[in-house]
């Protein structure tokens, strides 16, 4: 899953100008055409749009240890956050249904904190990231089997809505 950060809306004023063919059909004196050049877009309108790497990482049963695949994702995300310090992110720790409610809240928090610690080590700033644990309260899969539990043992990375505009895309895995 990816999310597009809208740094600024790009407004193209070229759509209001006639195409080259229509200019030839309606000739103007060269002096008039040169006298009114199209002004360049303002710096706010020309700001780039960037894509935030977001998604989920998964954990083994009863563990907050980061897997190699999770570290690869977190490395890309941490480098991105170091480059764009205004982007803010919430890490949501989750667990499967096994274990007590209190234990799962604590485990989900350890998972979110492990990801945050890794991101800060890579270059993200502490203030860019908040963490929360939902324990078993927000399952991705509703089943009561190993595959469902595997999907529910995760951290989700959610950009702050005040910073980004979400654009749904397919998840790669």
Query: What is the CATH C-level name of the domain at 54-159?
Result: Alpha Beta
Query: What value does the average pLDDT take?
Result: 76
Separate helix tally: 5
Q: Which range does the strand content fall in?
A: 15-25%
Q: Largest sheet, if any?
A: 4 strands, mixed
CATH homologous superfamily identity of the domain at 54-159: OmpA-like domain
The CATH topology of the domain at 54-159, please? 60s Ribosomal Protein L30, Chain: A
Low-confidence segments:
1-47, 165-173
How many DSSP E strands?
6
The CATH architecture of the domain at 54-159: 2-Layer Sandwich
Question: Which helices and strands occur, and which strands form pairs?
Answer:
Layout: E1 2-5, H1 20-25, H2 30-35, E2 50-53, E3 55-58, H3 68-83, E4 89-94, H4 101-122, E5 129-135, H5 146-152, E6 154-159
Parallel strand pairs: 4-5
Antiparallel strand pairs: 1-2, 3-6, 4-6
Helix pairs in contact: 3-4
């Amino acid at each position: 899953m990816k999310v597009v950060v809208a740094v600024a809306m790009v407004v193209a004023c070229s759509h209001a100008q006639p195409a080259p063919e229509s200019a030839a059909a309606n000739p103007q004196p060269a002096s008039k055409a040169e006298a009114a050049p199209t002004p360049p877009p303002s710096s706010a309108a020309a700001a780039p749009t960037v894509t935030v790497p977001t998604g989920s990482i998964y954990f083994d049963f009863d563990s907050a240890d980061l897997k190699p695949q999770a570290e690869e994702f977190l490395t890309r995300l941490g480098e991105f956050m170091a480059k764009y310090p205004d982007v803010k992110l919430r890490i949501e720790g989750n667990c499967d249904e096994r274990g007590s409610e209190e234990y799962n809240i604590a485990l989900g928090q350890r998972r979110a904190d492990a990801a945050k610690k890794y991101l800060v080590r890579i270059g993200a700033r502490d203030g860019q990231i908040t963490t929360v644990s939902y324990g078993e309260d927000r399952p991705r899969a509703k089943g009561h089997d190993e595959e469902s539990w595997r999907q529910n043992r995760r951290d989700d990375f959610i950009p702050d809505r005040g910073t980004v505009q979400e654009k749904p895309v397919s998840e790669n895995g």
